[in-house]
Amino acid sequence: MDSYNQLIEEITANVQHINSEAGLFQLKAEYLGKQGKVTALSAQLKSASVEEKKRIGQELNALKEIVTKLFNDKLQAITIEQANAQIAQTQYDTSLRAEWNKRSRLQGGYHPLTLIKREMEDLFHSMGFAILDGPFIEDEFHNFTALNIPQAHPARDMQDTFWFADKVHCLRTHASPIEIRAMQELTPPFKFIAPAKVFRNEEIDASHEAAFHQIEGMVIDKNIGVQHMVYFLEKLVQEILGHHTKTRLRSGFFPFVEPGFELDVTCHLCEGAGCSFCKGSGWIEFCGCGLTHPNVLIAGGLDPNEWSGFAFGLGWDRFAMIRYGIEDIRHLQSADLRFSQQFRSY
Ligand SMILES: [Zn+2]
């Protein structure tokens, strides 16, 4: 045991004088390496009796543990010392201008869909609307039946649907099921918008994606008429597309509204004169809208004699394309950094 303690004292003294990692590793090899002094002590085991072997083995292990800790502690101390020295040597010039051009190459930006969503949420929030969402996976009732689209209704064929194997659940084909969920859960009067990702089993081209986005809106109150809807949508269009933007209503068919309309806005590129974007008409489709069908109110648990409402749904991707002049909807989900980097805020 005395020789062990001597060895520990010797190593402690030697380690103190080391001040580099390389020096420390060399010293460690002298004691713990294959030919090292500590390793050599194992030779005692060969000639020892079984009793002694057990005792010597335990003592040897304890010694190795102490010596290893000595080296590890020193290594940690050297590492910290080196880092501190490096920090002390580094000089910062706080008067230097930030290198924006170099840095901005590495910096991300918000996706145009996120920019539109935030803008819409801010606007609607300021008008007292709630912001809602619903599940991606819907059942037949919420996606179709409750929205006045019974089985075998031709409107079901208008929306190519991703059905699950049970033929009851599907990926929501539009944002309108959120209307039903809202009516079932909220106490009228209420108003909300719901920015939502929706899915259609469609062929993909420059203006069609299998997954795209809609913003649904609904107002439920007493004695709501078309005039309320028109006033509201005109204000909305002017707020988000500019006060010079004109609107027009065309009749349109959506099973969940009666009467139903398509709202057009003057083309932002030619301001109504006609160009290739608006196919010469001067108008572009902005959203579908209408007064909520009594069957839909009933499906949502509301009495159509007491409550009425209007709803609108606009293509969120299409709105982003109009706003930012994006010519192909597939860019929006391309995950191509060259595309998204164009929308940095500086
Ligand atoms: Zn135009």
Would you mind describing this structure in some detail?
One of its GO terms (biological process) is phenylalanyl-tRNA aminoacylation. Mg(2+) binds at residue 258. Belongs to the class-II aminoacyl-tRNA synthetase family. Phe-tRNA synthetase alpha subunit type 1 subfamily. This protein has 346 residues and is an alpha+beta fold. The protein has 2 domains: 2-89; 112-343, Bira Bifunctional Protein, Domain 2 (BirA Bifunctional Protein, domain 2), CATH 3.30.930. Helix content is 43%, strand content 18%. The protein is built from 14 helices and 9 strands. The protein has helices at 2-17, 21-32, 37-40, 44-47, 50-89, 100-104, 112-126, 140-143, 154-158, 177-185, 226-241, 294-299, 316-324, 337-340; strands spanning 130-131, 137-139, 169-171, 190-199, 211-221, 247-251, 257-266, 283-292, 308-315. The protein has a 7-stranded mixed beta sheet with strand order 1-4-5-9-8-7-6. The chain has a two-stranded antiparallel ribbon with strand order 2-3. A hairpin with a 5-residue loop joins strand 6 (247-251) and strand 7 (257-266). Helix 1 (2-17) runs parallel beside helix 5, helix 2 packs antiparallel against helix 5 (50-89) and helix 7 crosses helix 13. The protein is elongated and about 105 Å long. Bound molecules: zinc ion. The site of zinc ion has 8 residues, from loops.
